[in-house]
Design a protein that fits this description.
The structure is a homodimer. By secondary structure, chain A is mainly alpha-helical. Chain A has one domain: Orthogonal Bundle (Tetracycline Repressor, domain 2). The longest helix of chain A is centred in the C-terminal third of the chain and has 24 residues. The first copy, chain A, is elongated and about 55 Å long. The N terminus of chain A is likely disordered. Chains A and B meet through helix 6, helix 7 and helix 8 of A and helix 6, helix 7 and helix 8 of B. The first copy, chain A, binds a DNA duplex through loops.
DNA sequence: CAAGAGAGTGATTGATCAATAACCTATTCC
DNA sequence: GGAATAGGTTATTGATCAATCACTCTCTTG
């Protein structure tokens, strides 16, 4: 058995397929863009992190902008997935949502920083991705709050988003004291 | 009288002194940096707005980074000045502070956008300026709340900052619906 | 085994920009 | 009148980078 390989055992996820390379590039892109921002990050830095040549990135992504958009979408997808997975009684839903987000910030800080980086970008496709992402998150949380029968869902969602943003900014600026204080 | 001038009457503020030029450049820099971000904005764009040559900027500012820092400091100074000027009874202080900030966002949107642009920048002097600015604003508002005898000043300030940030982001992303909803 | 597809690279290019160098022009004032 | 001084300009340079081009290498398969 397993006679296709001689020395190394190669699992599906480290086979050098275009699809796997795309994933690796995206993962590296999140880190590099989060660290340096869209305009200062270079495709060469992303390539180096993956261990491929810089031009190869352009075989899998049309251009730098598309790479950034794909990375940003990946970040929003994780947030959406995380919030969708929350199950909690009405009186604990808000606390549980906050806890989930705090955990996400610990496990995937670069995806959060990527969004902070994207806040200032005026490039239309990137701006559109940000708007779609923010709207999707807001709507999802709101529907969860509504379904749970929480009073004033609009206000609660807004407050949640505001505190989340302050949290993001506190992290981006390295100012832990700026983090939201709860009563 | 006024025999120093023949045709045009030149007031002190449009005399071509280095100090006046510095001010004009700073004003243009706020706009250009707010619109395009630190890395994408060019010194040539700033120069064009002022109506001077690009190299002349470097006679008045050591480099691009120093220009950005000066523009950012100017933005924070206005916020501080605005908040310092507020006088209101305890039961109206929060509402009045919010109103002041909303007005500032209307009169000087570019100074707010500049700060959003600065959120992602990792350059040490710029980051330091952001940290100092955010801390100064937070401390000032807190001392106002404390002096007015507001309960839970820490929490109130934090909530105010969070909503302010959400407001900034709503503007930056062109998403008016994202603006904070108050109960 | 030839032909093609898939994965990947090295070399280069064309733009873009911050920053410098060298120079210009008017005014002041000894 | 000549020498600072202040306020500017033109031309240039040296880096940096996204993106393209022209290849190579290695399977697979009819």
């Amino acid at each position: 058995m397993n006679n296709k390989q001689t020395a190394t055992v190669r699992s599906k996820s480290d086979e050098a397929t275009a699809a796997n390379r795309r994933e690796q590039i995206l993962e590296a892109a999140v880190i590099v863009f989060a660290e340096h921002g869209y305009y200062r990050a270079t495709t060469a830095q992303v390539a180096e992190k993956v261990g491929i040549s810089q031009p190869y990135i352009f075989k899998l992504f049309r251009n730098k902008e598309e790479l950034f958009v794909a990375a940003l979408e990946r970040a929003f997808e994780r947030i959406i997935r995380t919030f969708k997975a929350i199950v909690a009684p009405a009186d604990q839903l808000l606390a549980e949502t906050i806890r989930s987000y705090e955990q996400l910030m610990e496990t995937h800080p670069n995806e959060i920083l990527l969004q902070v980086q994207a806040l200032g970008i005026r490039d239309q496709p990137i701006l559109q991705t940000m708007q779609n992402g923010m709207l999707a998150v807001t709507d999802l949380v709101k529907s969860k709050f509504v379904d749970a029968g929480i009073r004033n869902p609009e206000v609660e969602v807004s407050t949640f988003m505001a505190n989340g943003m302050l949290c993001n900014i506190a992290m981006a600026l390295g100012m832990p004291d700026l983090k939201p204080k709860h009563a």
